[in-house]
């Protein structure tokens, strides 16, 4: 911990430490009234200037900001959204949407949600909500969420403009729990290789993973590619449960230790249903926490092969302490270690900005013998923070990331793809596959997109190199496929010529 506290903040830290030290248990509510509240009340009652309503939040953030990058304070306002994300669901009408030309456009109804059951379709435009016009008024994403989300069982009336129909279509939608899936997609790449992509580790991940892997086994899966790229982690229990399905019973998955916590070893407890399936795990610098636990367990137990780039290096364990007012502190209490003894956590002595940018500035280099560890079968693996893959994939340096990021951040691919899809809906898409249809017109689509962005920002198209155009072409095709055929076709296009996946196919 950095020793740079101002006296008042240091005093508050000591006070908070006493309170937490007495009461710390996962999910246990902590009484914060006593000394901290006394200090806050004195300031509120006597300070010369008016006090901002977020004053208490700012005090707590000041106290914890120099502890480590992952200890955090969650205000009452933000806690509900974070909880929904981790529990894997929220209450609403069940659509993915974009705002295009100042209108709410349904990208896709969520499977099993109320909107899908009523027959709302991709490309539908929501123009009226509860008798109020919402088109052409400058509505923003947060405004849409406020209008469409709500308590389960409550109703919202909408009127929809559908291409080809003159009149608006009215719907009365009963809000319901909407699942936030952690399995983006599961499919067979060929007759023997299955593919599962996980985007997070939530309360529902175990169920989703088991369902996906069982379906792939029925289709003849002999090898599994588990894609954890850009998966930031989540619940440890979900990672452990997945390892139960991948490892033999009694193998060490991970262990934790902390200054005030004894060593805790976690072992696989079940005979895995995937014991005869070969495993390849894909990671990159965006794979963190629970993703790193799985990759480390697979690697150290010599269960499979890890492919990609060194993972983020988030190996600190947070325990959540809820406050009486609905806020919470996530306090780092332990570190994660892989079965071979490697600490997953990378160095965090520098400031937080440098810490979170480090993975984008890495350079390939030979690791020293001091960071060498041994797997179960005696293979060399390396520590130093994050999981170093068995087979490394070099970063693509041919892409003009400044231009590509600008295109992505502004949503130009998303908006163009939606507009294109909206014009092309029809029976043709029921008669042909996404890959077949889009491969015939991919150059036309690319040309149209280049004209599209050049009209938005004159001269930007001239800055695109061949690698940029190839990347954009794939992204546009994939987005159109998702709009017209569904998410599996999106991923079938995305994983075409994917170096990670091709490497996994060759080496697994």
Report on this model:
With 508 residues, this protein is an alpha+beta fold. The chain folds into 4 domains: 7-67, no CATH class; 89-179, PDZ domain (Pdz3 Domain); 183-319 and 333-392, 2-enoyl-CoA Hydratase, Chain A, domain 1; 401-506, no CATH class. 38% of the residues lie in helices and 22% in strands. It has 17 helices and 22 strands. The strands form 5 sheets. Strands 1, 2, 14, 15, 18 and 19 form a 6-stranded mixed beta sheet that branches. Strands 4, 5, 6, 7, 8 and 9 form a 6-stranded antiparallel beta sheet that branches. Strands 11-12-13-16-17-22 form a 6-stranded mixed beta sheet, with helices on both faces. Helix 8 packs parallel to helix 9. The model is unreliable at 1-30 (pLDDT under 50).
| Alpha-carbon Rg, integer | 25 Å
- Rough outline: globular
Give the rounded overall mean pLDDT: 84
CATH topology of the largest domain: 2-enoyl-CoA Hydratase, Chain A, domain 1
Q: Percent of residues in beta strands?
A: 15-25%
CATH architecture type of the largest domain: Alpha-Beta Complex
What kind of assembly state do the chains in view correspond to? single chain
Task: Fill in the keyword field for this structure.
508 residues; alpha+beta; Pdz3 Domain; 2-enoyl-CoA Hydratase, Chain A, domain 1; six-stranded mixed sheet; six-stranded antiparallel sheet; disordered N terminus
């Amino acid at each position: 911990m950095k020793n740079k506290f101002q006296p008042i903040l240091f005093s508050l830290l000591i006070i908070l430490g006493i309170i937490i030290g007495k009461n710390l248990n996962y999910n246990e509510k902590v009484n914060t009234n006593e000394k901290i509240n006394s200090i806050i009340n004195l300031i509120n009652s006597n300070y010369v200037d008016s006090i901002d309503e977020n004053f208490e939040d700012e005090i707590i953030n000041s106290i914890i900001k120099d502890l480590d990058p992952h200890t955090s304070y969650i205000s009452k306002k933000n806690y509900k959204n974070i909880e929904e994300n981790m529990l894997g669901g929220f209450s609403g009408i069940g659509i993915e949407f974009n705002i295009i030309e100042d209108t709410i456009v349904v990208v896709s109804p969520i499977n099993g949600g109320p909107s899908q059951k009523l027959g709302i379709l991709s490309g539908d435009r929501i123009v009226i909500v509860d008798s109020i016009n919402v088109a052409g008024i400058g509505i923003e994403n947060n405004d849409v969420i406020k209008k469409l989300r709500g308590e389960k069982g409550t109703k919202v009336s909408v009127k929809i403009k559908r291409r080809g129909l003159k009149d608006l279509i009215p719907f009365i939608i009963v809000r319901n729990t909407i699942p936030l899936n952690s399995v983006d997609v599961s499919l067979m790449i060929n007759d023997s290789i299955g593919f599962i992509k996980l985007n997070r580790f939530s309360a529902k991940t175990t169920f989703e993973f088991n369902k996906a892997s069982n379906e792939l086994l029925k289709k003849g899966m002999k090898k599994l590619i588990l894609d954890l790229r850009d998966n930031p982690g989540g619940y440890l229990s979900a990672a452990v449960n997945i390892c139960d399905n991948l490892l033999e019973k009694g193998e060490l998955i991970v262990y934790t230790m902390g200054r005030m916590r004894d060593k805790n070893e976690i072992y696989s407890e079940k005979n895995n249903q995937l014991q005869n399936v070969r495993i390849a795990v894909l990671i990159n610098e965006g794979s963190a926490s629970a993703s790193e636990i799985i990759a480390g367990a697979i690697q150290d137990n010599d269960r499979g092969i890890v492919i990609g780039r060194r993972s983020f290096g988030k190996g600190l364990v947070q325990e959540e302490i809820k406050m009486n007012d609905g806020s919470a502190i996530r306090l780092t209490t332990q570190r994660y270690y892989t079965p071979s003894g490697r600490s997953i956590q990378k160095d965090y002595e520098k400031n937080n900005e440098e810490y979170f940018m480090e993975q984008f500035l890495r350079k390939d280099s030979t690791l020293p013998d001091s960071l060498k560890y041994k797997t179960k079968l005696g293979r060399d693996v390396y520590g130093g923070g994050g999981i170093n893959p068995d087979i490394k994939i070099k970063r693509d340096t041919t892409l003009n990331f400044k231009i590509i990021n600008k295109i992505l951040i502004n949503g130009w691919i998303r908006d163009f793809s939606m507009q294109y899809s909206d014009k092309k809906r029809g029976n043709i898409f029921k008669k042909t596959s996404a890959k077949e249809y889009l491969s015939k017109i991919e150059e036309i689509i690319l040309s149209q997109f280049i004209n599209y962005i050049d009209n938005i920002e004159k001269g930007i198209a001239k800055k695109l190199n061949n690698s940029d155009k190839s990347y954009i072409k794939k992204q546009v095709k994939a987005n159109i496929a998702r709009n017209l055929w569904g998410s599996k076709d999106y991923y079938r296009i995305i994983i075409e010529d994917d170096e990670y996946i091709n490497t996994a196919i060759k080496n697994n």
